[in-house]
Amino acid sequence: MDERIAIWNVSHDGEITAVSQDGDTLTIFVSIPYLRRRLKPLGDSFVLTLAGIRRAERRDFVGAASSASPLREELEIGTPEILRTESQSMPVTVETTMGQMILDFQSIRFTLDTAQDTDYKTIERVCDEYWTEWKAKSEGSGSA
């Protein structure tokens, strides 16, 4: 699957803690401490930099649309958590605890909150490792 889309499911449970738009580039900080602490140096977030933005829109639960920049205002009253996407192609619709983000962009870059570059495969790997360990622990505790 296209990593521009797949990252939103890998980021499940991640909280959007900061957003900045500069021209056609949107930067989103996603805090997922239980995954991020598996990578050095220590940190708690991944930074998703979306370039070539063609559409960045938010929809509340009633369906009212606004540009992505009001997301910064929403961060003043709450922290949206990423739930999932069922999108298979662009634009991607990301379900959050505060509504939807509809994003259409050309490319994505992944960095750590400590400014080191990373890639989708690394984020996916630590996610898979975490959930495999979690499942093993939960099955082990149920058999005692």
Task: Tell me about this structure.
- The protein has one domain.
- The chain starts with a helix and ends with a helix.
- The protein has a five-stranded antiparallel beta sheet with strand order 1-2-3-9-10. Strands 5-4-8-7-6 form a five-stranded antiparallel beta sheet, covered by helices on one side.
- A hairpin with a 6-residue loop joins strand 6 and strand 7.
- The chain is built from four helices and ten strands.
- By secondary structure, it is α+β, with helices and mostly antiparallel strands.
What layout of secondary structure does this protein have?
Layout: H1 3-10, E1 15-22, E2 25-31, H2 33-36, E3 45-51, E4 55-59, E5 65-67, H3 70-74, E6 82-85, E7 92-96, E8 99-104, E9 107-112, E10 117-118, H4 120-142
CA-to-CA gap between the ends?
39 Å
Structural class: alpha+beta
Averaging pLDDT over every residue, what do you get? 90
Discrete helix count = 4
Strand content: 35-45%
| Poorly predicted runs | none
Helix content: 25-40%
Q: How many extended strands?
A: 10
Key traits:
single chain, alpha+beta, 37% strand, five-stranded antiparallel β-sheet, 144 residues
Describe the structure concisely for a colleague.
This protein has helices spanning 3-10, 33-36, 70-74, 120-142, and strands at 15-22, 25-31, 45-51, 55-59, 65-67, 82-85, 92-96, 99-104, 107-112, 117-118. By secondary structure, it is α+β, with helices and mostly antiparallel strands.
